[in-house]
Design goal:
The complex is a heterodimer of chains A (85) and B (400). Chain A is an all-alpha fold and 85 residues long. Chain A has a single domain, classed as Orthogonal Bundle (Non-ribosomal Peptide Synthetase Peptidyl Carrier Protein, Chain A), CATH 1.10.1200.10. Chain A is built from 5 helices and no strands. In chain A, α1 packs across α3 and α1 packs across α5. The radius of gyration of chain A is 12 Å and the shape is globular. The two termini of chain A are 13 Å apart. Chain B is α/β, with parallel strands linked by helices and 400 residues long. Chain B starts with 8 loop residues before the first helix and ends with a helix. Chain B has 2 domains: 154 residues, Alpha-Beta Complex (Aspartate Aminotransferase, domain 1); 220 residues, Type I PLP-dependent aspartate aminotransferase-like (Major domain) (Aspartate Aminotransferase, domain 2), CATH 3.40.640.10. In chain B, the strands form 3 sheets. Chain B has a 7-stranded mixed sheet, sandwiched between helices. In chain B, strands 1-2-3-12 form a 4-stranded mixed sheet. In chain B, strands 11-14-13 form a 3-stranded antiparallel sheet. Chain B has 13 helices and 14 strands. Classes of the chains: A mainly alpha (85), B alpha/beta (400). Chains A and B meet through α3 of A and β6 of B. Bound molecules: pyridoxal-5'-phosphate. The site of pyridoxal-5'-phosphate has 14 residues of chain B, from α4. Pyridoxal-5'-phosphate binds next to α4 of chain B.
């Protein structure tokens, strides 16, 4: 079971990793749409996801990414992968 | 309801802006072909330095004659798939010759290399399996993975340690594992660390597929590709390739020693549900394959030419995408606009190269991608080098 505390830690790490890709300085929130709001192209999305994978020592299959739009979606996905690892 | 093409608005705007700067790179027309290395483009005789025609065999009289004969004897098209009426003696002969050339038991011929990847990857892997691919893989590898329904895990380009970590972390469960890499990567001309990847098989259980599209005919003592050069053919379970580069035709193939390989002939949909490649295409490919086997000196000429272009560009101060000499020579440009301006200036100076722009390029680089041919003369390489210098001078005055 993931606690709110775990969630917040995952979210903080993801926000930190996302910051360098946030070239327009958009205020990051759980409902920020990673590709659309931050104007990140597909190549950078993959780079960013690899950094997330390394940070949490998990694999995020490309297939699972199609359901991810927002920071909160990614936090949930990371939690589920940590859980299954 | 939104118009279905509306989603491409941003893509179209970007394209339109680039076209403003000159010729439309994606709709360029070769009005006439004069030789493997020359064409008429925009009414001007142009040296072709971006064709993937590595061995320069597209105009061999013997092979043109073989194609003509096949047209006369077998007609213009097969009008059917390999599993119905589309298999001719020529398809079987080419499959046997390719298997023999590659030193493998089995070969399947596909209608394109793109389709060979779709057919092999989706044929091999299914929803319970996991595929590990290099993140700089060709579009056909990505699409084959998607078609397979398998779990797809990316690793950083040529990063064996990254792949190793992923294999270690991965619990295969009841599914199989397939690792896919390319022999020679088409954008920067670098090769996969295949020996190290093959060595991972001693630690982890997986099957290995190598796409030798650009390395067939180019690498290895006999031209079988990177696996031959690195002496790891035993560890490679499946090789995919294309006829569209060194073999100077159109079509694709896969070879393997797997005893059950032929099951893919009635399990792999991209093989089954498309027309068999045309008779003339099979005949010219077979003829060129025999020439490649017979003329190893072509490979030496290719590498000599590659060294001329690589070293020549480096001496003239251009930044290249790969340290070592390779038949793919990519010039790195500081910006997309600069690359487009250079590309147009090169064309005006009678030289065609490939314009490769992000996001489809490695590390999102803006590239002028050259590919060298054994058919290039020293004078033609010199023309390319001079055109690069003149184009750079012209672009310097344009402030892009
Ligand atoms: C690595 C790679 N695989 C597959 C293909 C597809 O080959 P084809 O042109 O025969 O469809 C290409 C080239 O286009 C390629 O570069």
């Amino acid at each position: 079971m993931s606690t709110d505390n775990d969630n917040r830690q995952v979210e903080t790490t993801i926000m930190e990793l996302l910051a360098p890709y946030n070239k327009q300085g958009v205020a990051l929130a759980p409902d920020t749409d990673i590709a659309a709001d931050l104007n990140i192209d597909s190549a950078d999305v993959l780079n960013f996801v690899m950094e997330v994978e390394d940070a949490f020592d998990i694999d995020i299959p490309v297939n699972d990414l199609s359901d991810v739009r927002t920071v909160a979606d990614l936090v949930a996905l990371v939690q589920s992968r940590i859980g299954s690892a | 309801m939104p118009d279905l093409l509306k989603k491409y608005h941003k893509l179209k705007q970007r394209h339109d802006a680039l076209v403003q700067l000159g010729t439309d790179a994606v709709q360029l027309v070769n009005e006439q072909l004069l030789s493997p290395t020359r064409a008429i483009i925009n009414g001007r005789e142009t040296v072709l330095a971006g064709t993937n025609n590595y061995l320069g065999l597209t105009f061999e009289p013997e092979c043109i004659e073989a194609g003509r004969k096949a047209l006369e004897e077998y007609g213009t098209g097969t009008t059917g798939s390999r599993i119905a009426n589309g298999t001719y003696a020529l398809h079987v002969a080419l499959e046997q010759a390719l298997a023999e050339f590659m030193g493998r038991q089995h070969c399947m011929v596909f209608s394109t290399g793109f389709q060979a990847n779709l057919g092999m990857i989706a044929g091999l892997a299914g929803p319970k399996d996991t595929i590990f691919i290099d993140m700089d893989s060709h579009a056909s590898i990505f699409d084959g993975c998607r078609l397979s329904g398998a779990t797809v895990v990316l690793f950083r380009h040529n990063d064996v340690e990254h792949l190793r970590r992923r294999l270690k972390r991965h619990d295969a469960g009841e599914g199989g594992r397939l690792v896919i890499v390319e022999g020679l990567y088409s954008m920067l001309g670098d090769t996969a660390p295949l020996r190290e990847i093959a060595a991972l098989k001693q630690e982890f259980d997986f099957q290995l597929l190598v796409d030798e599209a650009h390395s067939f005919g180019v690498l290895g003592k006999h031209g079988r590709g990177l696996a031959e050069q690195e002496d790891v053919e035993q560890a490679v379970d499946f090789v995919v390739g294309t006829f569209s580069k060194s073999l100077g035709g159109i079509g694709g193939y896969a070879v393997s020693d797997h005893p059950d390989f032929d099951v893919l002939r009635y399990a792999s949909r991209p093989y089954m549900f498309t027309a068999a490649p045309s008779p003339a295409s099979m005949a010219t490919t077979l003829c060129i394959l025999r020439q490649i086997a017979r003329r190893p000196q072509l490979r030496k000429k290719l590498w000599d030419n590659a060294a001329l272009l690589h070293n020549g560009l480096k001496e003239r101060g251009f930044e290249l995408g790969h340290e070592a000499v390779s038949p793919v020579v990519a010039v790195i440009c500081p910006t997309q606009e600069y690359a487009v301006a250079m590309w147009n200036a090169l064309l005006q100076h009678g030289v065609y190269v490939n314009l490769a722009l992000p996001p489809g390029t490695p590390k999102k680089l803006a590239l002028l991608r050259c590919s060298v041919s054994a058919a290039h003369t020293a004078e033609e390489i010199e023309t390319v080098l001079q055109a690069f210098v003149k184009a750079r001078d012209a672009v310097a005055t344009m402030q892009v």
